[in-house]
Design goal:
Order of helices and strands: HHHHHHHHHH
Number of domains: 2
Number of strands: 0
Distance between the termini: 57 Å
Transmembrane segments: 54-77, 89-114, 134-156, 168-190, 202-224
Radius of gyration: 28 Å
Keywords: Membrane, Transmembrane, Transmembrane helix
Protein name: DUF4386 domain-containing protein
Number of helices: 10
Organism: Patulibacter brassicae
Largest sheet: none
Helix content: over 70%
Structural class: mainly alpha
Length: 282
């Protein structure tokens, strides 16, 4: 059952990608991204013309954003197998996936609100919501950088002959993380390749992230199939030396107590006088 649950979670990466693609490009018709220097009338018209599509698209994106936690957890569990001596990398990935999910949901609410109230609020408000929508897309790239770096470190920490993930996927994770670095420039420029609709803050990181999802999904599925101990009740290696030392001490104490009781029982059985004396005293 645990294997089936993990496989289902891993395969949500494909659904996540499809929901984002259908939501932004298919229904909302937001690609290409609005120019930051576009007039108020142009921005308002883009939302008014595709109002229903934007609302449906933002709903799909919200489901896709929620799946980041599910898919991210599946990847994190397998990378934990790759680097059990570094459990903090697992926790970083879980936290980053949760943060990415919340950012995606907030982004959807902003885009949906822009379409929901288009025409009934001043055009400048719609323009500001449009700016906020796209800035929320490009600025939180640091979260994805940390996510990809943590996954990459865990993958490369696996030095076994048959690693959980191929090493190239670790280097690719670093490359994806690097692609998010120019995201902050979307707040500094309103035109050119560094504006929020430009090549560096939007196109490259967006394409690279979903390529990462599409690459890591089958690799995670393969890792789950190759896991020799999918049973959650199976003993896991203890990465913390202090915990391992304490556990060894407790095991030694239990073994000493067991032996002492065994010797005491054996001694009573060999000495028939002791039970008789004990019974007489009673």
């Amino acid at each position: 059952m645990d294997r089936k649950i993990q496989l289902t979670c891993a395969l949500t990466g494909l659904l996540l990608t499809a929901l984002y693609g259908l939501g932004v490009a298919g229904f909302a018709r937001m690609i290409p991204v609005n120019d930051p220097q576009a007039s108020v009338a142009t921005v308002v018209a883009s939302y008014a013309e595709h109002k229903t599509g934007v609302l449906v698209g933002m709903s799909l994106l919200m489901f896709g954003a929620s799946l980041m936690i599910v898919w991210g957890a599946a990847v994190a569990v397998q990378t934990r197998r790759a680097a059990p001596q570094h459990p903090i990398l697992f926790h970083i990935q879980i936290a980053a996936a949760g943060t990415a999910c919340m950012n995606g949901i907030l982004l959807c609410l902003v885009g949906g609100l822009a379409a929901f109230r288009v025409g009934s609020v001043p055009g400048e408000v719609t323009q500001m919501l449009n700016d906020l929508f796209w800035l929320l897309w490009v600025l939180p790239g640091a979260t994805f950088e940390i996510w990809c770096v943590a996954a990459g470190l865990a993958i490369l920490a696996d030095r076994r002959a048959q690693p959980v993930f191929p090493r190239w996927s670790g280097y690719f994770s670093f490359l994806v993380a690097f692609s998010f670095l120019p995201g902050f420039t979307g707040l500094l420029f309103q035109s050119g390749p560094f504006a929020y609709n430009g090549l560096n803050p939007w196109w490259i990181p967006t394409i690279m992230f979903f390529l990462w999802v599409m690459a890591m999904t089958p690799l995670t599925v393969r890792a789950i199939h190759r896991d020799a101990s999918p049973d959650p009740r199976a003993a896991l290696p203890i990465a913390d030396p202090a915990v391992a030392t304490e556990l060894a001490r407790l095991r030694a104490e239990i073994e000493t107590e067991r032996r002492a009781r065994h010797e005491l029982t054996a001694g009573i059985a060999l000495d028939p006088v002791r039970p008789t004396v004990a019974a007489a005293r009673a």
